UniProtKB/TrEMBL annotation:
One of its GO terms (biological process) is cellular response to phosphate starvation. SUPFAM superfamilies: ATPase domain of HSP90 chaperone/DNA topoisomerase II/histidine kinase, Homodimeric domain of signal transducing histidine kinase. Keywords: Kinase, Phosphoprotein, Transferase, Two-component regulatory system. Its EC number is 2.7.13.3. PANTHER family: PHOSPHATE REGULON SENSOR PROTEIN PHOR (PTHR45453:SF1). InterPro entries: BphY/WalK/GraS-like, HATPase_C_sf, HATPase_dom, His_kinase_dom, HisK_dim/P_dom, HisK_dim/P_sf, Sig_transdc_His_kin-like_C. CDD domains: HisKA (cd00082). One of its GO terms (cellular component) is plasma membrane. One of its GO terms (molecular function) is phosphorelay sensor kinase activity. This is histidine kinase. Residues 18-230 form the Histidine kinase domain.
Amino acid sequence: MMTTIQASFSKERKFIADASHELLTPLAALQYRFDNMLSDESLSDENLLRVVESQRTVHRLRTIIKSLLMISKIENDQFPRTETVSLAQLVAEVSEEVQDRLAVLNLTLTQEVQPDFVVQGANRGLLFTLLFNLVGNAIKYNREGGQIMLLGRPEAPAGYVLEVRDTGRGISKEQLPRLFHRFDKGSTTDPDSYGLGLSIARTIADLHGIRIEVNSIEGLGTSFLLFFPG
Ligand SMILES: Nc1ncnc2c1ncn2[C@@H]1O[C@H](COP(=O)(O)OP(=O)(O)OP(=O)(O)O)[C@@H](O)[C@H]1O
Ligand SMILES: [Mg+2]
């Protein structure tokens, strides 16, 4: 039998899922309307700019809502976990996916996942998102000419650790305790930072029984450790 607390949690989850889903439809309509306005040749440059700005806002809203929807879908156990995933392969795929973004800050990315580790009973897409979000942060909060290291090693007595290490700006002691909270952005002011990437990462890790540990020194860099059970 469900306890009252469990019941109210699942009610809240269902509400978030339903509300997010409902919001996506009118937003798609709004986006469509803005797209159409852009093809209006009588539009002044000033108004054109306003429409483009509005399109960006709609895009941001959709990204936030999709992320919330994703979190609630994971929490509601709507993703099957039936795949076996090689971490060496996953690291290689994520590295490949971010190659273009390394050039902006002149970053070097190295991968050393040896020996490999195979995760059983996993959802490959979700594990990709988990690693992609961590590597995305390692890129975004790095410094010019910095490094990113993706390192895998067995963990005694059983299990495995995958580390995402960067030489970026680091995370303050004040921010660390709320790092995985939804919408926490620390001192980040970038309008395209939503403070949701780590919250998604944590939800995916919980689903797979992966423990996350963070070590960071301000001004020097950050290391995220993923502990996979053996
Ligand atoms: N590797 C890192 N180095 C320094 N700061 C970090 C790092 N990873 C996360 N942070 C801090 O934690 C905050 C939350 O990260 P999170 O990934 O959840 O959101 P975000 O990057 O701001 O936006 P998004 O939702 O687009 O990922 C960031 O805004 C940043 O302040
Ligand atoms: Mg992020």
